[in-house]
Amino acid sequence: MANRPKGYGFTAEQANKKAKKFDADQANEALDWIKQVVGDFSCEPVPKEKGESKFVEPLKDGIVLCKLMNKIKPGSISKINESKMAFKQMENISKFLAECEALGMSKIDLFQTVDLYEAQNVPQVVNGIYAVARKARVNGFTGPSLGPDEATENKREFSEEQLRSGEGVIGLQAGSNKGASQAGQNFGKTRAIID
């Protein structure tokens, strides 16, 4: 499956659209963050042009991702598959993604196993690593950080009096015309009917 043809028409358009979303700078920042957290991880910098394969290469087997999760949440992945068999490597990625959900990450922030293993949607993998970094900080991880912190809820509470004070007001979006009419408007010549 790794040598799947890219296709023509709509499939090629979608592949090009995904390729344009890939940002090599963000990918390098993500890899640098993984290096800082994991420690025993080395990889080459991702080039600006066609760098998706260079980004996927060190992460494809899922071993580094499992080690990353064990640093963020110690003991979360007990057995990491070192095998070179495709389904074992994909199992490592699946274990990582399952632990990401256990951290409280939304499925929207995650990527799918094939997005990484077959390089189907590499920009989503980069975004997923940024999301892991945000969620790790929320869950008490004190190591290096990547990207902005996750937003916190700003819940507002209004008294009953404050809520009722707005009932009699017509909002600007309600479309009030304040008594305007079309009287006196004339567009173009009138139609002359002559007998």
Q: In percent, how much strand structure appears in the residues? A: under 5%
Number of strands: 0
CATH superfamily of one domain: Calponin-like domain
What is the CA-based Rg, rounded? 27 Å
- The SSE order reads HHHHHHHH
Shape: elongated
The helix/strand class is mainly alpha
The main β sheet shows up as: none
Assigned CATH class of one domain:
Mainly Alpha
- Helix fraction, binned, reads 40-55%
Structural account:
There is one protein chain. The chain is an all-alpha fold and about 200 residues long. The chain has a domain at about 10-140: Actin-binding Protein, T-fimbrin, domain 1 (Orthogonal Bundle). It has helices spanning about 10-20, 25-40, 50-55, 65-70, 85-105, 115, 120-140, 160-165. The chain is elongated, with a radius of gyration of 27 Å. The termini are far apart.
What descriptors fit this protein?
Calponin-like, 45% helix, mainly alpha, Actin-binding Protein, T-fimbrin, domain 1, 8 helices, 195 residues, Calponin_repeat, actin filament binding, elongated
Describe what is shown at a glance.
The protein is mainly alpha-helical and 195 residues long. Helices cover 45% and strands 0% of the residues. The chain has a domain at 9-139: Calponin-like domain (Actin-binding Protein, T-fimbrin, domain 1, Orthogonal Bundle).
Strand and helix map with partners:
Blueprint: H1 10-21, H2 24-38, H3 52-56, H4 63-72, H5 86-103, H6 113-117, H7 122-138, H8 160-165
